[in-house]
Amino acid sequence: MAKKTKKITSIGGSALIEGIMMRGPKRCTVCVRTGKEKIESEDISITTIPEKFSFFKIPFFRGIAGLIDSMRLSYKSLMISADKAISSAEIEEEPSKFEKWLDEKFGDKLVKVLMVIASVIGVALAIGLFFFLPSFLFDLCGNFIPAFRESDGNVEMVRLWKSVFEGVMKIVLFFGYIIIVSQMSDMKRTFMYHGAEHKTIFCYENEEELTVANVKKQTRFHPRCGTSFMVIMLILGIVIGLFVPANPFGVAFLRPVFKILLIPVTCGIGYELIKLCGKHDNWFTRIIAAPGLWAQRITTKEPDDSMIEVAIEAIKAVIPEDGSDIVNKCGC
Q1: Per-10-residue mean pLDDT, the chain, length 332
Q2: Does residue 29 sit in helix, strand or coil?
Q3: Angle at CA 278, nearest 5°, toward 332 and 217?
Q4: Residue 172, Cβ neighbours under 10 Å: how many?
Q5: CA 267, CA 236: separation in Å to the nearest integer?
Q6: Contacts (Cβ under 8 Å, ≥6 apart) of 324
Q7: Using CA atoms, how far apart are residues 72 and 78, in angstroms rounded to an integer?
Q8: From CA 91, how far away is CA 88, in angstroms rounded?
Q9: Residue 43 vs residues 20, 29, 82, 317: alpha-carbon distances, Å
Q10: Burial environment of residue 269 by CB neighbours within 10 A (0 to 12, 13 to 18, 19 or more)
């Protein structure tokens, strides 16, 4: 069981390409390592959905808005870090004719275009793998396993089995994916920056001076993490799936469609659970956070000193002088 911190803060962040984004209550800053002795910083901002529509400040609905705003902010941060990282790299090879053509046609917009295309493909693959594939495989298994086939007396049991089967499949796919990508050298560095982000926030929450030595001794597993949120979403998906018929209106294809439409419900509940973990540190919140903390053994790695320096600069930039980031003292 993790040691309680002296305070809990609302400050959070995310790992980027050779950098870190830290977000406080008043400021959001991206810091990127662009040289051995150089760290570039840039403040960013977005107009959040609750700022436009006060309706989305209501519990549960704020989770939907929070997820969308976090994705917008992460995308913007990633673009900045990619631009700074590419600009600082020494390109020795002469660009090919195709690369020159792309540069002439798109110029600085090329990276953005590629990111949009990659995002669209990524969303399509995620929907196919996490919603339609598990449902299809269960129905396929029904040809060989009688318990997986609906009959007059086992409709409820089939719904139970299908929800559990789909949930387990999603968890296997999720962890399989992050394990595979964690073997890539670039992703290993990103996961190291992820660890630096968590350790630096813990150092601040323990009210220790923000130095490399103090940050290094902190744990890299933090309950308020995107990984934890994803794991909670997967677990909630199993529970919510119990309320969706195995074959709505006799059409199996409609089940994953209904579950996609129920994503806002999952997001809303998951956000409130993560927010609860962000405000309190007790046995109940630790049980909620436990699966996500275990998953962080894959998505976070021990950082080197240069990465910690980036994280320290990023968090120092967003700590407000009036203490408005502190949501709880003494881990109560």
Answers
A1: 74 93 94 89 90 88 88 88 73 58 64 75 87 90 80 77 91 91 90 96 94 95 87 90 86 88 90 82 83 91 96 96 83 51
A2: strand
A3: 80
A4: 11
A5: 9
A6: 25, 26
A7: 10
A8: 9
A9: 12, 4, 15, 9
A10: middle
CB 4 within 8 A of CB 331: yes
Q: How far apart are CA 184 and CA 239, in angstroms?
A: 34
Residue in the structure block whose two tokens are 């929070």: 66
Beta bridge partners of 33: 39
Q: Report d(CA 243, CA 234) in Å as an integer.
A: 15
CA 268 to chain centre: 15
Find tokens 């609906």 and name the residue: 150
Residue 322, both tokens: 């009036």
DSSP characters over 258-278: HHHHTHHHHHHHHHHHHHHHH
